[in-house]
Amino acid sequence: MTAFLENYKEFNSKDVESIYIRKAVIAVQKGNPKKIKCFDDLLKPKVKVVVVEGAGVYNTSGTGVWEDIAGRLGSLSDVNKLRKNIITFAKGSGAGFKAFKNRADAWITWTHWIKTHPKDADMIEFSKERVIYRDLSIVTNSKADNETEIFITFLKGNEAKKIFYSEGWLK
Fold first, then answer.
1. pLDDT tens digit string along 46-78?
2. Cα–Cα dist 160/125, whole Å
3. 110, 124 in Cβ contact below 8 A?
4. Can you identify the CATH homologous superfamily of domain 23-137?
């Protein structure tokens, strides 16, 4: 949202509202052939990991998540070991999913990718000490049309909540 606000000056940071939150997880190949159970397994030699990184080009929810997770306990060694196992720094989640499907053992991503692709991946959750959450934020301004307000009301309502919850988003 911060990058969005920097590019679109007609919106005010004080008007931003976070309406859902989701947690990062590890996607593993269906059946989990590498037997990955936790973050530490991503640090083992020859484990091929995909992460999403905007690379200064994309505004993506996954930018920096892998670094946040790896550095969460204050261990530079964890960051360095994970970096050595990263085979793709994908520009966006779609590219991350493609790289994961084609040649990786694991992908640090969001719950909804596994929930919407159950034939391709299984989900491993991070421990409480490692998990990172990111929000879904919305913003509007006085120039917005009536349909915008209707959509925002929908996003905050029970029908949308059921949809978001089904894919791992929380309030």
1. 999 999 986 555 666 667 899 999 999 999 999
2. 24
3. no
4. Periplasmic binding protein-like II (3.40.190.10)
